[in-house]
């Protein structure tokens, strides 16, 4: 598992296993991958190092993901809001995206990832952002304004149970519970 | 775990977590924008810029805001929320005793929440509030608690903190009362950061140790011992699960496939590996309990090996452990006078127990799959909601991502245009034409199936005659036996293509129906071919005058499996490789082929059915199947990577997997069970070969064994079980009745639940309507108060409170600023610097006025009566929501 300095202390490893959905093997792999992101001079204290966002999104698992910035934002605990990830944040992220995570926690974080303005509900703006991420930014694939309006209207009609114009967490989880593919598709494995 | 489920997102901690830092940051950005507003360029500007922080700490909200009429102005329209300069008192922050505006501007976490913080708390229970509201409160707290002031807000904050603490204590107490495993799971499930989870865990552990100390110390040793055992058990479990995980085949390959083609294609490969594990298990069981003992007792094989046997399965293989006929009927004793090994019983029990295990594991995975994937299918409406969870995070390949985005875009556009054209109802004539086409297609496909079956039947009878006659050279005979499997495989390969041509004619309205219809036709075809073959084996071969009919059947199945494997390879070569060459070189508009998941999975189900039938006649068939599945996996993977593109249509992977598991169970496995049952109970085993030679039926071996056991009093219970449970009709009758009753009860419960769900759904909608109605009223009320007394009161109050500090001439500006709403709106739009990101409102149409989801936000301006009504509405809604969640959870469980 990497060099001599770059292994996880056993007690900490046990703690990580207890606090996340990851297995020992997965944590060690995560550690290895994370240490590759940390610059050489900081390798000694990987557990306290923070990797800036533009480094994190170079991971092949995230590189092409249209939600990469949101993922970094949601899982980052950086004080100054630069979306950098510490090793524990990284583990948190992998834990949520792992196979073993329950679909409740997955949908909870999916909601936060899709909540682009972090206001606790999915409103029209969020949905528009979401659809844009899904269809890509290219001119050919982008939806026209009227199509977007129609689509968002449809989404709200179906998902907004209490008709308040936004989708809140429980409504979102309700929709997710009807879509069994979610748990298998909301997954990132290193 | 319903408790945690609810607790997870109701816990305010989440909203205060550092991960929501961004919200705060945004607010601070807003602050800088506020400063840029034109009205801040007053001579006092420098003051606000420099002393912002101290100011925030020193102001006191002495005047309750609800009584402050100016507050109304701020909150009357949602649009105006973020624009303090639209407020008539926009630049009154020079006033120290009336520092309304500065508070509004200088609270870092959320400019909005600080205003409504105290009011939100006053008007509704702290424990019952929506997410947004709670977060606002949270923010407010973080502001007010840092201020050195002591006022009502502080008291509120303290009360709130207390509440929060008690909540946390409750959580911790709850966690402490759980078992270790439950606790770990519960903590894992919390949507919090690692740091918070660790804190909670440590607190729980502290609580636990405190409790255990206070309880007693004398059983300390014992508990420690227990704890150690539990710990080592847990370690052992973890180690075991890790071992299993590392044993999982092709983890990396599967990841690559998923990364490039998404979950849908991945499901085929997962299914393949699943079948592979079935076969590995069956091979291990058969090999260790049937084949190894046979090796000990085996005679010598004097047939020569030519190589053609690999294809035909005849010749040399006839005298090997591959086939039924080679197994001995004697008891095997290696050491004299020790316990012997009865081959008959071993054969029958091994295969019997294997089928029982298969049955339960299939039922288990089917039930699990159904439970997870067909939750309330009748309320599954439309597609738009699906968009929320359509993104496949597995896809990591950049090209694949772009392709996926393109596909999604076209799909959405198609769906939208379909939605528009759906209103056009078809005329009667058109409908008749549609029905006629469907009918014709069905008749055609069923006719094709019938023709195929007849063809297979006569060919197989002809084959048997040829074999019985035995004239011609050995090589000719062997080649002749290959005709049947080749024809069967050809039919299996080509007819589905004909069926897919029918699809083009039929034009289904929904692609889902098309998939289901195609799958049904293919299943009917494959299963009837297998059915005809079974009829031939059990009724014609078994009664023919051959030396060893079981071996013949085994050979037939062997040939079918081998030839099908070869055709599968050819199919992926021609169907995918050549197709890609044509698609990219000759006919450009055909394009790169897609991987046909349904056809491939049905092929797998077909082969697995053959293998299951064959297990009895050729116990080592699973071994051959393992090799084939390995090769198929790699060939399909390479072919997929080289030739195919990701599927364009949405493939509902989970539901399809459920369907395939069901198909594997229903026509396939149950059919196999009946075939094996007929073989065991009804048919005469061959006279001169196999473990059951000389018996009238295979099951006789068991009854004879029981007869022997009757003489031993120690094994009387086996005899009792045999007579009273296995042979007894009454037992099965009672069992069936009980199961039917239970099924009926469950069915009734489900019906009741369905009604309940519908009612609750209606209730939620009604609550929503109520809320809308109340908000409507509220707005009307606001409008009326704003028009008359509010304006007057506001200006009056203003003049009394701040006239002292008002420089002359500024009052005019004030009046000018308090212009009506409609005049102000254009003003706001100019200030794009702010309105670019108004946190809640900008994208809501004017008609709705303000965001109904956050009614508390508007509360500073409401009268107590109205706010109470609102709080009531909110509470009702949340209650409904909670009920609904509970209901959902129950649905999941049932």
TrEMBL record, chain A:
The keyword Metal-binding applies. Pfam families: EF-hand_7. The keyword Heme does not apply. GO terms for biological process: integrin-mediated signaling pathway. Gene3D superfamilies: EF-hand (1.10.238.10). SMART domains: EFh (SM00054). Keywords: Calcium, Integrin, Magnesium, Metal-binding, Repeat. Residues 102-137, 147-182 form the EF-hand domain. CDD domains: EFh. GO terms for molecular function: calcium ion binding; magnesium ion binding. This is Calcium and integrin-binding protein 1. It comes from Alligator mississippiensis.
UniProtKB/TrEMBL annotation, chain B:
Residues 883-894 have a biased composition (Acidic residues). Residues 28-45, 794-805 have a biased composition (Polar residues). It is found in: Membrane. It is a multi-pass membrane protein. GO terms for molecular function: mechanosensitive monoatomic ion channel activity. Residues 1-55, 120-144, 786-811, 829-894 are annotated as: Disordered. Belongs to the TMC family. This is Transmembrane channel-like protein. It comes from Alligator mississippiensis (American alligator).
């Amino acid at each position: 598992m990497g060099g001599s300095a770059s292994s996880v202390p056993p007690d900490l490893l046990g703690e990580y296993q207890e606090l996340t959905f990851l297995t020992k093997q997965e944590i060690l792999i995560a550690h290895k991958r994370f240490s590759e992101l940390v610059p050489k001079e900081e390798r000694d204290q990987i557990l306290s190092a923070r990797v800036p966002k533009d480094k994190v999104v170079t991971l092949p698992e995230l590189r092409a993901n249209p939600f990469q910035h949101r993922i970094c934002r949601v899982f980052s605990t950086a004080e100054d809001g630069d979306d950098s990830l510490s090793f524990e944040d990284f583990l948190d992220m992998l834990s949520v995206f792992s196979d073993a995570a329950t679909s409740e926690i997955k949908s909870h974080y999916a909601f936060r990832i899709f909540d682009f303005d972090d206001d606790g509900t999915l409103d029209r703006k969020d949905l528009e952002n979401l659809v844009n991420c899904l269809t890509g930014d290219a001119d050919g694939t982008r939806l026209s304004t009227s199509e977007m309006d129609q689509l968002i209207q449809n989404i709200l009609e179906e998902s907004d149970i209490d008709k308040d114009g936004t989708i809140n967490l429980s409504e979102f989880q309700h929709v997710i519970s009807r879509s069994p593919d979610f748990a298998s598709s909301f997954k990132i494995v290193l | 775990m319903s408790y945690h489920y609810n607790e997870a997102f109701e816990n305010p901690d989440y909203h205060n977590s550092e991960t929501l830092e961004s919200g705060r940051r945004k607010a601070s950005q807003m602050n800088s924008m506020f400063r840029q507003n034109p009205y801040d360029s007053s001579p006092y500007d420098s003051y606000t810029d420099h002393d912002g922080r101290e100011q925030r700490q020193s102001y006191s909200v002495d005047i309750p805001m609800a009584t402050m009429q100016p507050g109304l102005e701020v909150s009357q329209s949602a649009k105006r929320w973020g624009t303090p300069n639209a407020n008539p008192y926009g630049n009154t922050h020079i006033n120290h005793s009336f520092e309304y505006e500065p508070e509004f501007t200088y609270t870092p976490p959320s400019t909005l929440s600080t205003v409504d913080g105290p009011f939100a708390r006053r008007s509704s229970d702290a424990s019952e509030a929506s997410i947004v509201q709670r977060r606002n409160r949270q923010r407010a707290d973080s502001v007010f608690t840092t201020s050195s002031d002591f006022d009502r807000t502080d008291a509120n904050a303290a009360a709130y903190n207390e509440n929060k603490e008690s909540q946390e204590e409750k959580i911790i107490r709850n966690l402490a009362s759980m078992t270790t495993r439950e606790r770990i799971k519960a903590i894992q499930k919390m949507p919090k950061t690692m740091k918070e989870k660790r804190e909670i865990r440590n607190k729980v552990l502290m609580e636990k140790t405190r409790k255990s100390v206070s309880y007693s110390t004398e059983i300390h040793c014992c508990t420690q011992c227990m704890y150690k055992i539990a710990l080592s058990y847990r370690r052992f479990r973890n180690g075991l699960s890790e071992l299993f995980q590392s044993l999982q085949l092709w983890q990396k390959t599967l990841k690559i496939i998923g990364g490039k083609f998404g979950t849908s294609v991945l499901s085929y490969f997962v299914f393949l590996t699943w079948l592979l594990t079935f076969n590995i298990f069956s091979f291990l069981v058969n090999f260790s309990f049937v084949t190894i003992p046979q090796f000990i007792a085996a005679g010598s094989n004097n047939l020569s090996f030519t190589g053609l046997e690999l294809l035909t399965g005849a010749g040399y293989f006839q005298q090997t452990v591959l086939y039924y006929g080679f197994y001995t009927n004697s008891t095997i004793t290696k050491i004299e006078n020790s316990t012997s090994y009865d081959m008959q019983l071993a054969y029958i029990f091994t295969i019997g127990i294997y089928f029982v295990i298969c049955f339960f594991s299939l039922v288990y995975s089917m039930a699990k799959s159904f439970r997870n994937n067909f939750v309330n299918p009748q309320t599954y409406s439309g597609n738009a909601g699906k968009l929320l969870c359509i993104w496949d995070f597995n896809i990591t390949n950049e090209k694949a991502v772009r392709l996926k985005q393109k596909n999604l875009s076209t799909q959405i556009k198609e769906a939208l245009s379909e939605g528009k054209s759906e209103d056009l109802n078809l005329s009667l004539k058109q409908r008749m034409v549609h029905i006629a086409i469907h009918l014709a297609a069905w008749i055609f496909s069923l006719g094709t199936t019938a023709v195929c079956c007849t063809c297979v039947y006569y060919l197989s009878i002809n084959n048997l005659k040829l074999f019985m006659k035995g004239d011609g050279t050995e090589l000719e005979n062997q080649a002749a036996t290959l005709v049947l499997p080749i024809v069967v495989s050809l039919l299996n390969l080509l007819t589905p293509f004909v069926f897919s041509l029918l699809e083009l004619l039929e034009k289904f309205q929904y692609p889902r129906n098309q998939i289901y219809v195609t799958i049904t036709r293919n299943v009917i075809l494959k299963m009837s071919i297998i059915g005809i073959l079974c009829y031939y084996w059990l009724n014609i071969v078994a009664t023919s005058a051959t030396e060893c009919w079981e071996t013949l059947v085994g050979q037939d199945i062997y040939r079918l499996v081998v030839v099908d494997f070869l055709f599968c390879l050819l199919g992926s070569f021609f169907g995918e490789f050549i197709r890609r060459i044509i698609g990219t070189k000759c006919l450009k508009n055909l394009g790169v082929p897609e991987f046909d998941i349904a056809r491939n999975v049905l092929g797998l189900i077909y082969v697995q059915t053959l293998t299951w039938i064959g297990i009895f006649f050729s116990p080592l068939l699973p071994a051959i199947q393992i090799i084939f599945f390995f090769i198929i996996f790699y060939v399909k993977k390479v072919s997929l990577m080289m030739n195919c593109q990701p599927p364009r249509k949405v493939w509902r992977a989970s539901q399809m997997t459920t369907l395939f598991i069901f198909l594997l169970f229903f026509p396939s496995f149950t059919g196999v069970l009946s075939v094996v049952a007929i073989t065991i109970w009804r048919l005469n085993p061959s006279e001169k070969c196999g473990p059951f030679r000389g018996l009238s039926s295979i099951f006789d071996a068991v009854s004879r064994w029981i007869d022997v056991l009757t003489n031993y009093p120690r094994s009387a219970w086996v005899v009792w079980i045999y007579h009273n449970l296995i042979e007894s009709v009454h037992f099965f009758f009672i069992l069936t009745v009980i199961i039917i009753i239970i099924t009926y009860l469950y069915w009734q419960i489900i019906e009741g639940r369905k009604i309940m769900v519908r009612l609750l759904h209606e209730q939620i909608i009604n609550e929503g309507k109520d809320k809308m109605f109340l908000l409507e009223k509220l707005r009307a009320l606001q409008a009326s108060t704003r028009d008359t007394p509010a304006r007057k009161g506001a200006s009056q109050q203003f003049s009394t409170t701040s006239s002292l500090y008002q420089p002359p001439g500024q009052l005019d500006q004030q009046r000018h600023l308090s212009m009506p709403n409609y005049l102000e709106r254009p003003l706001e739009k100019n200030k794009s610097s702010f309105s670019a990101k108004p946190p809640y409102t900008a994208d809501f149409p004017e008609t709705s006025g303000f965001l109904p989801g956050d009614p508390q936000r508007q509360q500073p301006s409401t009268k107590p009566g109205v706010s109470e009504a609102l709080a009531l509405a909110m509470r009702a809604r949340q209650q409904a929501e909670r009920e609904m969640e509970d209901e959902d959870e129950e649905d999941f469980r049932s």
